[in-house]
Input
Amino acid sequence: MSGTNVICFANNKGGSGKSTTCSNIGYGLSVLGKKVLLVDGDMQLNLSLSLFEEDQVLDFARSEKNLYEGIRRQSDLTDFIVRSPFENLDLIPSSTLMCSIEYELFTKWQREYILKKCLANIMSSGEYDYILIDAPPTLGGWVMNILCASDAVIIPVESSPWGMFGLANMFEFLGEVRQIAPELQTGGVVITKVDTRKSYFRQTLDTLKELDGVKVFDTYIRVDSGVEWSQDNHVPIMAYRKNSRSAKEYMELTEEIVQRFEGGHGK
Output
């Protein structure tokens, strides 16, 4: 059996920090010596843009070597992997055509498991310690595909007045997915974009802790302009400014995730 941990980052609310969290956790894991594959499942291409310049990402999107083409053809995704500029960190890039992926899936046999089948050879190879999948901010057949392919889901939640909006729908959707993928775990909720000077953080934390069966990571990610600069330069914050506050917080979160998944609390 493969020892690869497959974790997706999902929230049906946009702006929660899914792509940023996914890319920085991926980089953090690579720094710890883990071999990591990132899978960009969103038409907005943000995960791909976190590692590559815009021209290169658009080249991926226009080529036949991106996730959309792999899913459309139900291909082994091994051939769709590109090497990132960072050691131990690879990527399956996305395409703007992912906007029509629901249509592509609609008529397929066992459509909820197509991504899982396309990842099967990568999983069985044991090449990667972690596969991290960035999901789009929707709830539908494609996100169900992503969840069915994953061992666990991590839910980034923005610390803002509207950050919790729709979270009940997310948990309801997870309940539906578990009817066909009962092994799917909720890896935890991570609070992002925290401004400790405002009351939103405490309100968000208290509300989350009142939810039954919801694990909240001890590490939270505060607002840091360095994250935006790192995004503008197409590198994870830990590579761009490793001594920044957010870089340290993402590293602490990475270590917490490793403990949760490799310390007997994950799969």
Observations:
- The domain at 5-262 is CATH 3.40.50.300 (Rossmann fold).
- Residues 227 and 237 are 6 Å apart (CA to CA).
